[in-house]
Amino acid sequence: MAEAVVDVWVLDTAGPSARSAPPAPSHGSPDTGVLDDHERERWARLADGPTARAYLELHLLARSQIGSLLDRPPGSLRFDRTCPDCGRQHGRLVLLDDPGLHVSLSRAGAVVALALTRSAPVGVDVEHVEGTRFEGFGEVALHPRERTAADAPAEAHAAAWVRKEAALKALGVGLRVEPASFVTPRPGVATEVVPGLPSLAVVDVDAPAGCAAAVALLSADGPFEVRRH
User: Quick one: which of 104, 73, 87, 82 has its CA closest to 169?
Assistant: First the structure.
């Protein structure tokens, strides 16, 4: 992968092009053999069939693509997810076998997203437009300067949300920083969204109908290339 390039996959795991559905977690699946203990445990705890399927498909996709890049068996890849606050395994995903390959994952219902790059820390996010149609969205997600547009179409709200989520993932802070504390980054413009942390740029990504997606890359230079798969 070239410098300042992010490879992105956004898939609807319930769509007609998706693979046939794996069994429910309680019945096991041969596909889960490539997952690590943490992934299998998380997958097994998901009682909802479509949600479990999306989780499994996303992690199989990540292992398959990373394994191909590194010429390694997908099941041999080792990840760390240590949270800097509590030490539990729900923090930023780090590939122990090659920390220079930055990885980000996202799920929204049956839709999943994966971003890979060697350029810099990256964040990807996908969300259903309907997921932003709730009372109080402005207070939760929009900076006070943006709330005059709180009656904007839900598509605009979803675009703002995924840009902010992607940015916070790229910074490695997640929702420890409130999305309403900063203005939505403009696509392709290097922005310091959290004072004292590196600048980043965001790019909107094509997503299945009814969804919005964005990817963010730590960068002081602004635009970067997205290769959509």
Answer: 104
- At 213, which helix (H) or strand (E)? strand 211-218
Structure confidence by residue, pLDDT tens digits, 197-226: 999 999 999 999 999 999 999 987 888 999
Indicate the pairing of strand 225-228 with strand 211-218: unpaired
pLDDT 10s digits, 113-171: 999 999 999 999 999 999 998 888 989 999 999 987 656 888 999 999 999 999 999 99
For tokens 């996303």, name the residue. Answer: 58
Please name which of 114, 92, 132, 135 lies closest in space to residue 212, comparing C-alpha atoms: 132
Q: Give the domain ranges of the chain.
A: 5-228
Token digits of residue 24: 């429910």
CB 197 within 8 A of CB 176: no
* Contact of 111 with 11, CB cutoff 8 Å: yes
Angle between helices 49-70 and 37-45 (to 10 degrees): 160
Type and span of the H or E element at 42: helix 37-45
Residue 54 tokens read as 């999306």
pTM: 0.92
Apex CA 124: angle with CA 21 and CA 20, to 5°? 10
Question: How many residues are listed for the chain in this entry?
Answer: 229
> Residue 168 is encoded by which pair of tokens?
């916070």
CATH of domain 5-228: 3.90.470.20
